[in-house]
């Protein structure tokens, strides 16, 4: 047995209630376990206990009747930006060996060797910030391997990656996980579900709801998985079926001879792009092809050459749109400016609908996006999924005519993702145009009225075969 | 980034960063104690020569840098030129009273800044930031937790810059929809800083945990980059001392300023 | 449970990051400081408190000995890091200002987060470098009214920016919930 926990309970400072009640869990040596559950279920906290971060590193009061933990554990976290210490790949890997007091003479060879193990074909002197998200997470895995841990704790390692990179990362992980115990938390489980030995479902109260082999969980306990809004390989069977909406006949946005640059490099050239009222457009393309840059250029947030017209009026500056074109960025927290969730939605409506009207509308939006419980909290205090929903709520008041969304379903659980899609559908129905970047194949084939894709530095109609 | 504008490496690259910092502090003290503008004049020139020879940076960048340093040096000494005490008036205009003495003093203050800026630039061009912290740990006895906290935090600067750019864009877009009061003046300023700080603190907290999960414990460790003192350090110290002395001699030989005491 | 009373890695990391955020902001808005200089009327001194605001904010958040000094050192080296300019004078000044703050915080035993403490630290830091400026900038040879102007602006700025503004930002940060993660924590030993 690698891990055994009996009657675990803990309490965060400043928290009212304790987390976990009678939590009991055993994980066998070399077992691969996947933990799923709604946000707030304490998955990450549990992982931190199992790897000994709580209470050794994170100051939390904790007790358990029995607590058997692995001798050595290593983590891979979700955010590449907050798990590296040093500027370059070699220095980062060396950091771990320095901690373990590996002799300097042995370091170079081990760096090369470990990069080979995880299939990272890069110069060790490369700066980490030049790597793609997928490469960064491979580096994180290489770091974990260098710790020579018998147990790996993976805390949503693919949540910031696009579909292709995520799939590739899971392949890499599987290649090296024999002989190790692996405990995984993950939202997006389609690549890993049937590869693990057991799936643990946690409820929203910090209890283990049920445990079982993956196929059995899927066969016998799908209701429970769905009830907690957790993604599973057959989630999309529950996806809302939405009739396609025909776009209306008025052109909203016309771009001609658009040239978008990144630095001095010409990134994209587009001869003509028309966007109609009531369209639901998805924008596809590999990482780094310039999807986000294109949208920023259309919004006039970065300089570009060419001609953009909105409702037959030339747009030269962002403010010429006068709020009719509204983006929801990938980092929602950077869009917030007020101190409560409610105000954040309210102020976008206030000028247009008046105080009372805005208040009612804001309340309705907040309820619809499942933010009622957190309406008085600070927008920076709520969970990542809630932040994302809040940023959609600020866009959804009916004033913007075109809403631009960058990966809106990223990090949302099944329930909220489906609700969001339903809501986008309703908005399109009432005449709003939606342009969204998404990597999710299931969304691309189900919902948009038009698919655009960036390939070879230009924009094409129709979806790509695969990302 | 710096490597891109250099065209050769120099012996100054091999000087221990601690030596460079200590020499900089010594130079600062020396400059405060020098009151002879002629001395300082030649010291500025010699420092420029050292910068050109020892930095290995392409000359057009150095020209640009020198112009900037001179410009900012001048405006930071204007208070003395305009309002310093003195008897031989050159110009009087309202409250402004420029005298010969105050001008010399102002230029003297400016040259102090220029000397330090030239030397500072030399240090920046020839020193890797990580080496500063590695040598502070190995030769300076700095506890690893301070050194690595600094190095890890430095990694976040581009991230902070990126977040700021996105934040600015996001506000630009919201501006037409919302009342001015939410976004302009102090309100806009403070929410910008609070958002950036809040994001960065959260990230720093997570990074701290990640670092400790990777076995970092402020105890004994080995070092990937080894730094040491060598004969080069001694030569570098001698070079700067000789430069200070030699510039004094030059000041005796050629004196562009009539006075030898700026006070 | 291990209670760590000294500075933990995370404490230092958070302190340095706070200082670097301010250094970054300073690097974009610092042009204002320079733009105010040419008149020679020391209007730039009204922003002087921006140089050591990081020390006060970091102290209010973490409340441990050494934080203000580290924050000031980081803020001063921040110019090197953010703008690639190494200015030894800034670092010497930063250390002196950090020490001045530390003394004020030590007097209140690193407990109080009141506005008065922040203001006192701001004023102390503002005054701490005057002796050095006196020698470096020949302040003794300046017209008296001009000197008093500089002195007054600087103290005012220390009180308003490094004291008052720092405290407001601290309150604002508290509202975002992020401070639950860091600094001296209230003990929660009961309830298990």
From TrEMBL, chain A:
Subcellular location: Cell membrane
Keyword Ion transport attributed: no
Residue stretches making up the ABC transporter domain: 3-230, 253-467
Pfam family, one: ABC_tran
UniProt keywords, alphabetically: ATP-binding, Cell membrane, Membrane, Nucleotide-binding, Translocase, Transport
Entry's Gene Ontology cellular component terms: ATP-binding cassette (ABC) transporter complex
Gene3D superfamilies linked: P-loop containing nucleotide triphosphate hydrolases
Membrane topology category: Peripheral membrane protein
Main subcellular localisation: membrane
GO molecular function per UniProt: ATP binding; ATP hydrolysis activity; ATPase-coupled transmembrane transporter activity
Protein family per UniProt: Belongs to the ABC transporter superfamily.
Protein name: ATP-binding cassette domain-containing protein
UniProt organism field: Salinicoccus cyprini
Lineage: Bacteria, Bacillati, Bacillota, Bacilli, Bacillales
TrEMBL record, chain B:
Classification via InterPro entries: ABC/ECF_trnsptr_transmembrane, Cobalt_transport_CbiQ
One cellular component (GO) term of this entry: ATP-binding cassette (ABC) transporter complex
One family name in Pfam for this protein: CbiQ
TM annotation in the entry: 15-33, 40-57, 63-82, 109-126, 146-165, 231-250
Annotated membrane topology: Multi-pass membrane protein
Protein localization: Membrane
Signal sequence residues: none
Entry keyword set: Membrane, Transmembrane, Transmembrane helix
GO biological process, one term: cobalt ion transport
Protein name: Energy-coupling factor transporter transmembrane protein EcfT
TrEMBL record, chain C:
Transmembrane segments: 12-33, 45-62, 67-84, 90-108, 115-136, 148-170
Pfam families in UniProt: ABC_cobalt (PF09819)
Organism: Salinicoccus cyprini
Keyword Transmembrane among UniProt keywords: yes
Keywords: Membrane, Transmembrane, Transmembrane helix
InterPro entries: ABC_thiamin-permease_prd
Name the UniProt record assigns to this protein: Thiamine ABC transporter permease
Top-rank taxon: Bacteria
């Amino acid at each position: 047995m690698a891990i055994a926990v009996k009657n675990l309970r803990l309490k965060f400072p400043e928290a009212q209630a304790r987390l976990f009640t009678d939590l009991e869990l055993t994980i066998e040596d070399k077992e691969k376990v996947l933990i799923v559950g709604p946000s707030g279920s304490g998955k990450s906290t549990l992982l931190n206990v199992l790897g000994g971060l709580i209470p050794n590193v994170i100051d939390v009061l904790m007790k358990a009747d029995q607590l058997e933990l692995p001798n050595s554990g290593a983590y891979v976290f979700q955010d590449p930006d907050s798990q590296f210490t040093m500027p370059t790949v070699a220095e980062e890997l060396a950091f771990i060996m320095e901690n373990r007091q590996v002799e300097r003479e042995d370091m170079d060879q081990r760096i090369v060797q470990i990069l080979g193990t995880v299939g990272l074909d890069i110069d060790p002197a490369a700066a980490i910030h030049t790597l793609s998200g997928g490469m960064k997470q491979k580096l994180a895995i290489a770091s974990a391997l260098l710790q020579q841990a018998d147990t790996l704790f993976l805390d949503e390692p693919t949540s910031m990656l696009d579909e292709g990179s995520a799939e590739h990362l899971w392949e890499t992980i599987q290649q090296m996980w024999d002989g190790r115990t692996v405990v995984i938390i993950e939202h997006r489980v389609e690549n890993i579900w049937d590869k693990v030995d057991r799936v643990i479902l946690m409820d929203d109260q910090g209890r283990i709801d049920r445990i079982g082999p993956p196929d059995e969980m899927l066969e016998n306990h799908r209701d429970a998985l769905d009830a907690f809004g957790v993604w599973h390989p057959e989630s999309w069977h529950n996806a809302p079926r939405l009739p396609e909406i025909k776009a209306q006949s008025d052109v909203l946005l016309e771009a001609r001879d658009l040239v978008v640059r990144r630095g001095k490099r010409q990134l994209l050239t587009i001869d003509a792009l028309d966007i109609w009222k009531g369209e639901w457009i998805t924008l596809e393309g590999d990482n780094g092809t310039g999807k986000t840059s294109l949208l920023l250029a259309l919004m006039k947030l970065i300089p570009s050459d060419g001609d953009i017209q909105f409702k037959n009026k030339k747009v030269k500056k962002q403010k010429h749109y006068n709020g009719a074109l509204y983006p929801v960025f990938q980092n929602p927290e950077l869009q917030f400016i007020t101190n409560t969730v409610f105000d954040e939605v309210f102020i976008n409506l206030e000028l247009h609908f008046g105080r009372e009207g805005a208040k009612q509308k804001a309340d309705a939006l907040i309820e619809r996006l499942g933010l009622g419980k957190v309406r008085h909290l600070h927008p920076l205090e709520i969970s990542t999924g809630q932040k994302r929903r809040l940023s959609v709520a600020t866009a959804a008041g009916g004033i913007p005519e075109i809403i631009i969304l960058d990966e809106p379903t990223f990090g949302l659980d099944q329930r909220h993702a489906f609700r969001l899609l339903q809501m986008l559908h309703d908005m399109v129905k009432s005449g709003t145009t939606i342009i969204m970047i998404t990597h999710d194949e299931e969304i691309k084939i189900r919902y948009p009225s038009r698919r655009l894709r960036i390939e070879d530095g230009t924009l094409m109609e129709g979806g790509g075969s695969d990302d | 980034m710096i490597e891109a504008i250099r065209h050769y490496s120099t012996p100054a690259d091999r000087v221990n960063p601690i030596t460079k910092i200590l020499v900089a502090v010594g130079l600062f003290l020396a400059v405060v104690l020098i009151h002879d503008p002629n001395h300082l004049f030649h010291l500025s020139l010699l420092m420029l020569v050292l910068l050109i020879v020892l930095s290995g940076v392409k000359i057009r960048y150095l020209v640009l840098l020198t112009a900037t340093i001179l410009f900012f040096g001048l405006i930071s000494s204007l208070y003395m030129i305009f309002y310093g005490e003195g008897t031989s008036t050159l110009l009087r205009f309202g409250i402004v009273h420029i005298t010969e003495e105050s001008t010399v003093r102002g230029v003297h203050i400016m040259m102090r800044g220029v000397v330090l800026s030239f030397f500072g630039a030399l240090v920046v061009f020839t020193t890797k930031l990580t080496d500063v912290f590695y040598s502070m740990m190995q030769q300076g006895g700095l506890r690893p937790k301070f050194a690595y906290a600094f190095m890890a935090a430095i990694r976040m600067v581009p991230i902070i810059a990126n977040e700021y750019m996105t934040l600015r864009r996001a506000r630009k877009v919201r501006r037409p929809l919302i009342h001015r009061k939410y976004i302009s003046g102090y309100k806009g300023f403070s929410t910008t800083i609070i958002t950036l700080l809040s994001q960065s603190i959260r990230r720093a907290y997570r990074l701290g945990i990640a670092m400790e999960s990777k076995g970092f414990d402020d105890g004994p460790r080995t070092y990937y980059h080894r730094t040491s003192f060598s004969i080069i350090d001694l030569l570098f110290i001698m070079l700067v001392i000789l430069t200070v002395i030699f510039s004094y001699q030059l000041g005796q030989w050629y004196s562009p300023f009539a006075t030898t005491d700026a006070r | 449970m291990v209670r760590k009373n000294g500075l933990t890695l995370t404490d230092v990391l958070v302190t340095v990051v706070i200082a670097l955020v301010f250094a970054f902001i300073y690097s974009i808005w610092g042009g204002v400081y320079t733009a105010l200089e040419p008149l020679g009327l020391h209007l730039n001194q009204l922003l002087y408190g921006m140089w050591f605001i990081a020390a006060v904010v970091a102290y209010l958040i973490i409340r441990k000995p050494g934080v203000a000094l580290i924050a000031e050192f980081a803020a001063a080296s921040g110019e090197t890091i953010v703008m690639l300019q190494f200015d030894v004078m800034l670092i010497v000044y930063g250390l002196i200002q950090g020490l001045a703050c530390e003394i004020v915080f030590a007097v209140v035993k690193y407990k109080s987060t009141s506005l008065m403490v922040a203001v006192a630290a701001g004023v102390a830091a503002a005054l701490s470098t005057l002796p050095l400026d006196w020698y470096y900038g020949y302040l003794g040879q300046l017209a008296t009214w001009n000197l008093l102007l500089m002195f007054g602006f600087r103290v005012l700025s220390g009180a308003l920016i490094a004291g008052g503004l720092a405290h407001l930002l601290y309150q604002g940060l508290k509202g975002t919930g992020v401070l639950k993660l860091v600094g001296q924590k209230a003990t929660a030993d009961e309830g298990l």
